[in-house]
Specification:
There is one protein chain. By secondary structure, the protein is an alpha/beta fold. It has two domains: 224 residues, Alpha-Beta Complex (Spore Coat Polysaccharide Biosynthesis Protein SpsA, Chain A); 69 residues. The longest helix is centred in the C-terminal third of the chain and has 32 residues. The chain starts with 27 loop residues before the first strand and ends in a 23-residue tail after the last helix. The relative contact order is 0.12.
Length: 347
């Protein structure tokens, strides 16, 4: 199958230059989350290692065994004797793809990180294309399974709807968030911590750190062995995780805005209800106790007060979070003619 290369990035956060990292021969870490892929792993590695050797750069392959119940771990132990660059991270139990991906990020030593699925649906031959695009000065290059070989309705249609929704809400426009085959610079992936089902949102996290993002079409093959670990139930998980991502993006530094907004909305409901209640009392001769309006007014005021109090508590928690870990509310790309930041003044 031929590989089509998009002439321009789908998403690009502009810089004045491509940057000093462009074109350099960085070391590479390929991460392979795997669960019950006993039959697929030997085939994948047999295809992957020749491609990586041809790149002419230092590399390692980290396979994260995510609680497999078949012979995957035994196969990996044997394969480490065949491939010296193969590393294995064996998780104590099945934690899910996001945790397995995070384990791979934590143990990776390369300056460029490339995740790839273990089910043979991603083509290792696409990795040089991702790296070539990365060398043009981008920080993240995402694969796009344009000719996807999955179930038309249960996987493809649902995925298209989810991708459009994620792009609309996040503001980072990609065709295929679910494609594991991506390339990241460590500088943008290093600060990222993943939870839930959020591995698909890594480009969004990277965009928060000012990453330049591109997308190119990649090959996709039908699954030959094993069964998919994805089901329709993941749609709800993706939606809920997307809400968390949006909250962290917009309001992590000022949670009082969202909780205070809800509080103001409840106070408006209380005010309108009170006005209508008094209108019925004085102009329609209807006793207030004959309607649920008094209860609605009281409950709305209580909800408004509670929302604002939660917002104030959240403000305290956010400040504790940033201060206790010496985190900053901003991220600096580079310092020009400045050796280091001045020491912080603590009172």
């Amino acid at each position: 199958m031929s590989v089509l290369l998009r002439p321009e990035p789908v998403v690009s956060i502009k810089r004045s230059e491509a940057g000093p990292e462009s074109g350099e021969n960085h070391s590479l870490s390929v991460i392979v989350p795997a669960k019950n892929e006993e039959q697929n792993l030997p085939v994948l590695l047999a295809r992957l290692f020749p491609v990586l050797h041809d790149l002419g750069r230092p590399f390692e392959v980290i396979v994260v065994n995510d609680g497999s119940t078949d012979g995957s771990l035994h196969v990996l132990r044997d394969l480490t004797h065949l491939y010296p660059e193969l590393r294995v991270v064996d998780l104590a139990r099945n934690y899910g793809q996001t945790a397995a991906m995070m384990a791979g990020f934590d143990h990776a030593r390369g300056e460029i990180i490339v995740p790839i699925d273990a089910d043979l649906q991603n083509d290792p031959a696409d990795i040089p294309l991702l790296l070539a695009k990365l060398d043009e000065g981008y920080d993240v290059v995402s694969g796009w399974r344009r000719d996807r070989k999955d179930a038309a309705i249960r996987r493809n249609f649902v995925s298209r709807i989810a991708n459009r929704m994620i792009s609309l809400i996040s503001g980072v426009h990609l065709h295929d968030y679910g494609c594991s085959l991506k390339a990241y610079r460590r500088s943008v992936i290093g600060p990222v911590r993943l939870y839930g089902e959020m591995h698909r949102f890594v480009p969004i996290y990277a965009a928060w750190y000012g990453a330049r993002i591109a997308e190119i079409p990649v090959n996709h093959s039908p699954r030959l062995h094993g069964t998919s670990n994805y089901g329709l139930e993941r749609i709800l998980k993706v939606v809920l995780d997307l809400l968390v991502v949006r909250f962290l993006d917009r309001w992590i530094g000022k949670p009082i805005y969202i909780f205070g907004g809800f509080g103001a909305l409840w106070f408006i409901v209380a005010g309108l209800s009170a006005i209508y209640m008094f209108y019925l009392k004085f102009f329609a001769n209807l006793s207030m106790i004959q309607t649920p309006l008094p209860l609605l007014v009281v409950m709305s005021i209580m909800m408004g007060v509670m929302s604002i109090c939660i917002g104030l508590v959240a403000e305290i928690v956010v400040r504790t979070y940033f201060e206790s870990q010496d985190k900053s509310i901003y991220h600096t790309r580079e310092l020009i003619n400045l050796d280091k930041a001045p020491p912080r003044q603590r009172g």
